[in-house]
Every structure is written in C-alpha cells, then in structure tokens.
Amino acid sequence: MSMLSQLFDRNLRNKIPFLRIGSSADRRYQRTDCYIISSLSLMSRPIMFDGVVDSVSSKGMQFRPASSYILDRRGEMVGIDINYKTYFGTIVAVRQSGYGIALSEPISDEELDGILEEYGYANAQEAGISA
C-alpha cells in the first residue's frame, strides 16, 4: 500500500465514525495510570528494552522505553516483565508516548488490582515519582 493511500485511509477513518478503530472513546477496558519499572523483550530476537509501563488494563498496556528513540515495531510479539512475571502480547500502536500492547491473555481482575495497588499512579505520587 502506498504512502498516499495509507494517508487517505487514515483520514477517511477519522471522518467516518463507524470506521474509527482504536479510539480511546471506544475502549472496552478502562486503562489506569501507573508507574511500573519493567522491561520489554522481543520474541523474534534476543533484545530487551528497559522502561516504564505507564497505563494498564486487563487487555493491554502502554510501555515507554527508556531510550530516546521509538522505532516502529507494530506487529512484533513481545513479553513485558513486571514483578517477576512475564505478560505476552503484540505491539499494536506506536506513539511518541510509547508502545501500545494488546495482551495475548487478559489479566484477571484480582491480579490487575494487585498490580495497581502496588504500582498505581497514586502510589507513584506518594513516592515522589512523576510519571
């Protein structure tokens, strides 16, 4: 697909509401701000990035690498290490703020509550960390 057709398709999707995909207004699972120091590993190569998970839901998370460059890695299978557990998923969005990752398996409500209790944004503010 050419660059021009990709741009046209993106503009068309934005103008016609039922064609919008991935809009935060359409999000089924509420994301919660957090500050979790973690690492992302690519499944296709032995490469690991240190960084921060700054929002999480039961079906996805956003990872911000500590490096200054965000490379387009859409479609890459990844693993996110949080508190000695690895969550597997696929990079579905690449933004300046980080990689949007759709998880392969949903995080249970109990596990998500535990993560947010320990690493939630309110706890980050109490610790004096600015996310």
Notes on the protein architecture:
The protein has 131 residues and is α+β, with helices and mostly antiparallel strands. The protein has one domain (29-126): predicted glycosyltransferase like domains (Thrombin, subunit H, Beta Barrel). The chain has helices at residues 3-15, 109-119, 121-126; strands at residues 32-42, 48-56, 60-65, 77-82, 85-95, 98-103. A hairpin with a 2-residue loop joins strand 4 and strand 5. Residues 4-8 and 12-25 have low confidence and may be disordered.
Query: What is the distance, rounded to the nearest whole angstrom, between the alpha carbons of the first and last residues?
Result: 37 Å
Order of helices and strands: HEEEEEEHH
Structural class per helix/strand content? alpha+beta
| Name of the top-level CATH class | Mainly Beta
Number of spatially distinct domains: 1
The description of the largest β-sheet is: 6 strands, antiparallel, barrel
Based on DSSP secondary structure assignment, what is the total number of beta strands? 6
Spans of 5+ residues with little confidence (pLDDT < 50)? Answer: 4-8, 12-25
CATH architecture annotation: Beta Barrel
In spatial order, strands of the major sheet run 1-2-3-6-5-4
Strand content: 35-45%
What is the percent of helical residues?
10-25%
> Mean pLDDT score, rounded?
77
Taken from the alpha-carbon principal axes, the silhouette is globular
Look at the structure and name the CATH superfamily. predicted glycosyltransferase like domains
Nearest-angstrom radius of gyration? Answer: 16 Å
